[in-house]
Amino acid sequence: DADEVRCLDNEALYDICFRTLKLTTPTYGDLNHLVCAAMSGITTCLRFPGQLNSDLRKLAVNLIPFPRLHFFMIGFAPLTSRGSQQYRALTVPELTQQQFDAKNMMCAADPRHGRYLTAACMFRGRMSTKEVDEQMLNVQNKNSSYFVEWIPNNIKASVCDIPPKGLKMSTTF
């Protein structure tokens, strides 16, 4: 009996390796790198302090409208392969656009064919919290048809100043 379940599958991870990272023969190490990046983002609140940091209990309370609806799809941006460095710093709008892209989802389900009940975005790195809030509002306004209307303000964002190793900033969805 779990409070939260994060859905990942090999099909989606292999698609990310082939299509986004352009790896011809991805290894389990490559797949694990993607999973580690996502799980690192999700558990940021347990490892680092932050003013706008959330914790897993608060996430569960805010994201689960009914106890049986506790399965989450995971997305991560920017997607990078093992050992590669990010050459260009991304902006908060670019990260936001990438995190809601179906190609960045680590579960082989296209969110455009359904509707979001809730969403949580964990940003890491030095960025303006005002800009993060503006982007979350933009996402909700521009993509309102992808969110159920009976849960108002259903996107939660948190910010941690400490970026992941090798990146200037990232976001986990």
From TrEMBL:
* UniProt protein name: Tubulin
One GO term of the biological process aspect: microtubule-based process
Q: Which family does it belong to?
A: Belongs to the tubulin family.
Gene3D superfamilies hit by this protein: Tubulin/FtsZ, C-terminal domain (3.30.1330.20), Tubulin/FtsZ, GTPase domain (3.40.50.1440)
| Alphabetical list of InterPro entries matching this protein | Beta_tubulin, Tub_FtsZ_C, Tubulin, Tubulin/FtsZ-like_C, Tubulin/FtsZ_2-layer-sand-dom, Tubulin/FtsZ_GTPase_sf
Alphabetically, the GO molecular function entries are:
GTP binding; GTPase activity; structural constituent of cytoskeleton
Could you tell me the superkingdom of the organism this chain comes from?
Answer: Eukaryota
Location of the Tubulin/FtsZ 2-layer sandwich domain: 52-173
